[in-house]
Amino acid sequence: QVQLVESGGGLVQAGGSLRLSCAASGRILRINDMGWYRQAPGKQREVVATISLGGRTNYVDSLKGRFTISRDNAKNTVFLQMNSLKPEDTAVYSCNADIVLLPYGSRSNAWGQGTQVTVSS
Question: HSE (CB half, 13 Å, CA atoms) of 93?
Answer without folding.
Answer: 31
